[in-house]
Design a protein that fits this description.
The complex is a heterodimer of chains A (294) and B (337). Chain A is mostly helical. Chain A contains 13 helices and no strands. With 337 residues, chain B is of the alpha/beta class. Chain B has a six-stranded mixed β-sheet, with helices on both faces. Chain B has a four-stranded antiparallel β-sheet with strand order 2-1-4-5, with helices on both faces. In chain B, strand 11, helix 13 (298-307) and strand 12 (312-316) form a beta-alpha-beta unit. The radius of gyration of chain B is 22 Å and the shape is globular. Classes of the chains: A mainly alpha (294), B alpha/beta (337). Chain A: One of its GO terms (biological process) is glycine betaine transport.
Chain lengths: 294, 337
């Protein structure tokens, strides 16, 4: 009867042996290659630091101007532009300017990195069903595994700092852009592709002249989602040494500072709304051709 | 007649998992239903051989599922055949490398599609210039040639519209201009006007005939509409279940249908506008009365025939040479079929 009452698990000894073996192997790997990996990521780190310093060193009126200009270029809407500038003014008045700049820096770099890696992977996935079958479950894991779990090996390898934070953000934020690039390209009208073939289009011309442009609305939805997910990782990233709005939030949690947490949390929300509205309206404008009645 | 531009020889296309394996059975005479039942393969094209004359309009007609759209896609190899040969200007299309094939698609053939196949993110002028752009022609040259063809199909003023902003008929004009802009000698038209409503379709047919008078392209035109086939086709081929069942000129098809299937097809058409006098002219008996051009259709010949002294007229060919005589009674009999 005893057999049925408790699940027959491996003994404690065997299990801890197994876990230790995994840990030791990874530690060994980390000792052997940690430095090389750090060197590999060094250019990224320098770029991130440079960008952060740039944002922090630029006088605030110029940042406000740039924010307004970018919002206008993206959205062509006075409402969104004015709202964006106003949000930054409020952030400044409430003394969150520096943290916001730091967050802005890491989000921008993370998004660029995700686009640079994610779009090619998405294109690759769209070109073969086997690729899609391999990559889809990996993306599923990346999106569902609790962030803390992959923080462990990242920190073991690279320690605490900006780069591990950036990697953690990217692991969480890259799936949407990959998925939507793949989906967008696969959804391109077969009739249009056949027409392109009939005129002797080479695979490269077809990809950049037909498939990617027609997939752009979906790719843009992916970029938008990637930005949103990157922002939602700000607090977790701050646990492993990323500066920004996440740090005061963490402090607020441990000290029960309601107002501090709320303020910084709302600043993150404000950034998210600005990014979202601007990139969405830009994405919509990209498909001006769809507005004509059919 | 003129020489062949495109030759299709013993073409087979079988859709399914192992088409090569069931090919032998098809060649041994297995029909479409048996093939589907016994092997799960679909017979697309069954031993089709067709010589397509240069500078003429060859119509391929059939109901949906007859394999006509499959057939036309073999000519520029959008579909790979299971067996057979396709020659363009004597060159074997099927043995070409990808690069050679692209060259053929760029320079020799161009295509117009039933669903237009326009690039929705490009403006009209950019769509028309697409084939040239793919070839790497300079942008000045593209703009110039695109404008020329936009004007020719009557879309002047719409250069900067997106296809989504145009009506179906106008979109197909863009499709036609795009196909003409590459100056390819062979124009493949896959049910090009079938999606348009009847009046617009008639207009487009007129535009095509007008352009053809001047351009003399080799046109392969797919349709399911007999009236369209008879109006456009210098030669007509009829497909059923992937097999070619009759091939000939419009009057040949109407006057001597190969089987009941085709007779059924042709019974409702206006024979007076299809049959030309030269098809009726009985050689032999000399005639010394008034003459009439052999390309006159029956409908236009009835009045002159009835006014002729003995209700008889001599028929001449295009060069004025005497072919034979036709009586009013003969003409009426031909009208009734």
């Amino acid at each position: 009867m005893e057999f049925f009452e408790e699940f027959p698990s491996l003994g404690r000894k065997t299990l801890s042996g197994m876990k230790q073996a995994v840990d030791e192997t990874f530690k060994g790997f980390s000792r052997a290659y940690g430095e090389q990996l750090e060197n590999f990521f060094d250019p990224l780190l320098r770029f991130l630091i440079w960008f952060e310093r740039l944002l922090e060193a630029t006088p605030w009126p110029i940042i406000l101007l740039v924010v307004g200009a970018l919002a206008w270029i993206g959205s062509r809407s006075w409402k969104i532009t004015a709202g964006s500038v106003l949000a930054f003014v409020v952030i400044g008045v409430l003394d969150m300017w520096e943290d916001t700049m730091a967050t802005l820096a890491i989000i921008s770099v993370a998004t660029l990195l995700c686009i640079a890696i994610g779009i090619p992977i998405g294109i690759l996935m769209s070109r073969s069903d086997r690729m899609q079958a391999i990559i889809t479950p990996i993306l599923d894991v990346m999106q569902t595994i609790p962030s803390f779990v992959y923080l462990i090996p990242v920190v073991m390898l690279l320690g605490i700092g900006k780069v591990p934070g950036l990697i953690a953000v990217c692991i969480y934020a890259i799936p949407p852009i990959v998925r939507l690039t793949n989906l967008g390209i696969r959804l391109v009208d077969k009739d249009v592709l056949e027409a392109a073939d009939a005129f002797g289009t080479s695979p490269w011309q077809k990809l950049w002249g037909v498939q990617v442009p027609l997939a752009l609305p979906n790719i843009f939805a992916g970029i938008n989602q990637t930005i949103m997910m990157a922002l939602s990782m700000v607090v977790i990233a701050s646990m492993i040494g990323v500066k920004g709005l996440g740090v005061p939030v963490l402090r607020a949690i441990s000290n029960q500072y309601l107002a501090l947490g709320l303020m910084n949390g709302l600043a993150i929300v404000a950034l998210a709304i600005i990014f979202d509205r601007v990139s969405q309206t830009y994405g919509k404008r990209l498909q001006a051709y769809r507005q004509g009645g059919k | 007649m003129s020489q062949s531009k495109v030759q299709i020889k013993n073409l087979y296309k079988i859709f399914g998992k192992t088409p090569k394996k069931v090919l032998a059975q098809v060649k041994a005479g297995m029909g479409k239903p048996e093939l589907l039942e016994q092997t799960g393969h679909v017979l697309g094209i069954q031993n089709v051989s067709l010589d397509i004359p240069e500078k003429r309009i060859q119509v391929v007609m059939g109901l949906s599922g007859s394999g006509k759209s499959t057939l036309i896609r073999h000519i520029n190899r959008l579909i790979e055949p299971t067996d057979g040969q396709i020659l363009i200007d004597g060159e074997d299309v099927l043995s070409m490398s990808d690069k050679q094939l692209r060259e053929v698609r760029r320079k020799k053939t161009s295509m117009v599609f039933q669903k237009f196949g326009l690039l929705p993110h490009r403006k009209v002028a950019e769509n028309v210039g697409y084939g040239l752009e793919v070839q790497g022609v300079s942008s000045d040259e593209i703009a110039k040639r695109a404008q020329h063809w936009i004007d020719r199909v009557g879309l002047t003023g719409y250069e900067n519209h997106y296809p989504g902003q145009l009506s179906g008929g106008m979109q197909q004009r863009v499709g036609l201009a795009r196909a003409l802009a590459t100056d390819a000698e062979i124009l493949l038209m896959d049910e090009a006007f079938s999606a348009l409503d009847p009046l617009i379709r008639y207009d487009m047919q007129s535009i095509l005939l007008e352009l053809q008078d001047e351009l003399h392209k080799t046109i392969i035109f797919i349709t399911h509409d007999l009236d369209e086939a008879l109006r456009l086709g210098d030669k007509i081929a009829i497909l059923r279940d992937g097999a070619l069942i009759q091939e000939g000129t419009a009057p040949q098809i109407v006057l001597t249908p190969a089987d009941d299937y085709i007779a059924d097809f042709t019974k409702d058409i206006n024979r007076g506008k299809v049959i030309r006098l030269k098809a009726l002219a009985a050689a032999g008996s000399p005639y010394d009365g008034a003459m009439i051009d052999g390309s006159t259709v029956l409908a236009d010949a009835l009045l002159p025939l009835s006014q002729a002294p003995d209700q008889r007229l001599g028929v001449t060919d295009a060069n004025g040479a005497y072919l034979g005589a036709v009586t009013l009674t003969q003409a009426i009999a031909a009208l009734q079929g």
